[in-house]
Amino acid sequence: MDVNSYMDVKSLCRVCNNFVSASLFRLHHDYKQMVCPTCFSGKTKQKEEQERELKQQEIKAAKAKPRGWDADDEYLEKMARIKREENQAQFTKIAGTNEVKAQCSACKYVFKYDPFKKKPYNCPYCNVEVPKLKNYNLL
Fold first, then answer.
1. What pLDDT score was predicted for residue 137?
2. Are 8 and 21 in contact (CB under 8 A)?
3. First-to-last CA distance in the chain?
4. How far apart are alpha carbons 36 and 10 in whole angstroms?
5. 130/88 Cα distance (integer angstroms)
6. Buried residues in 14-52 as b, exposed as e (16+ CB within 10 A)
7. What is the 3-state secondary structure (H, E, C) of the chain?
8. Cα 93 from chain centre
9. pLDDT tens digits for the chain (139 residues)?
């Protein structure tokens, strides 16, 4: 057995509250105390900033919702957003042809679709039925 293995003492970093080997601690000029290597390199400060930003975003999102907002309203809003996304044009006109570019709603695969012949019937990648072309102004 090595004598140094018994001498490896773990100490608590006062900045991040993690236990680290005491031999790795260094004096930090901003904190004016001994800190672990992660705090010395600034990773702890970055994590704190990211957490602070996430909290601010959550607060902004909470403020945007009116009083009485609950889980049912959240669900209804989510379903309305999904419905809007489905109704958005998944077709774009290809210039100079009668075909349109179609995007599969299931796998997001982009392929050519002929609205007059209605071919292909299914997505070539995942075999999901192609939705009906509602906007004939693309043609």
1. 57
2. yes
3. 81
4. 11
5. 14
6. ebbeeebeeebbeebeeeeebbbebbbeeebeeeeeeee
7. CCHHHHHCCEEECCCCCCEEEHHHCEEECCCCEEECHHHHHCHHHHHHHHHHHHHHHHHHHHHHCCCCCCHHHHHHHHHHHHHHHHHCCCEEECCCCCCEEEECCCCCCEEEEECCCCECCECCCCCCECCCCCCHHHC
8. 30
9. 455 566 688 999 988 889 999 899 999 888 889 999 888 888 878 888 888 898 888 877 767 777 787 888 889 988 988 877 766 657 888 899 989 998 887 788 999 999 888 899 999 999 988 877 665 555 5
Question: Which distant-in-sequence residues (6+ apart) come within 8 Å of 110 by Cβ?
Answer: 101, 102, 103, 104
pLDDT of residue 19: 92
Structure tokens at 12: 């608590």
Contact assessment for residue 23 and residue 8, using Cβ atoms and an 8 Å cutoff: yes
Q: Which of 18, 21, 24, 49 is nearest to 37 (CA)?
A: 24
CA distances from 112 to 3, 40, 87 (A): 72, 55, 19
- Identity of residue 6: Y
